[in-house]
Amino acid sequence: MPKKILPRPSRLRLVVLNDSAPVLKMLCNWLQEHGHHCETALLADMPHAHDEVGPFIQKHRPDVVIYDVGMPYSCSWDLLEVIRAAPALQSHPFVITTPNKRKLEQAVGPTSALEIGGPDSDLRRLLKAVEAAAHNRRAGS
Questions:
Q1: pTM of the full predicted structure?
Q2: 13-136 under CATH 3.40.50.1260, yes or no
Q3: Which end of the chain lies in a sparser environment, N or C, as judged by fewer CB atoms within 10 Å?
């Protein structure tokens, strides 16, 4: 069966959440170079992230949310689950990243997280995942 090629989406509105300022800046710059708009939040600067992340996402109305599960993995994963469970955010697709997928999965079990460590191949996979998530949302899947 031939591989399905998705049409290149128009400029996407993205919210990028990460604990690392350098990674956040690198991801946002890279995504903007590929035609997308980013709003970012440094999770380390949100002392009440359970209460702050949801309104931040709602305010920016993204097509896709990119959430990085960092250390400690179980706490970061728990925050993600709380955010995704909020009724107002259930229609937003999330693309999950992590600096170490093996350690994340040791902590929480199998995931669809993408390991992001900086190489272009990782970032191309991230871009494809983001664009596919936006396409699926628009298609109603």
A1: 0.87
A2: no
A3: N
The pLDDT averaged over each successive group of 10 residues in the chain (141 residues) is 56 92 90 93 89 92 93 88 88 90 89 74 83 83 55
The secondary structure of the chain as a DSSP string is -PPPPPPPPSPPEEEEEES-HHHHHHHHHHHHHTT-EEEEEEGGG-TTHHHHHHHHHHHH--SEEEEE--SSHHHHHHHHHHHHHSGGGTTS-EEEEES-HHHHHHHH----PEE-SS-HHHHHHHHHHHHHHHHHHHHT-
Hunting for tokens 């998530």 — which residue is that? 133
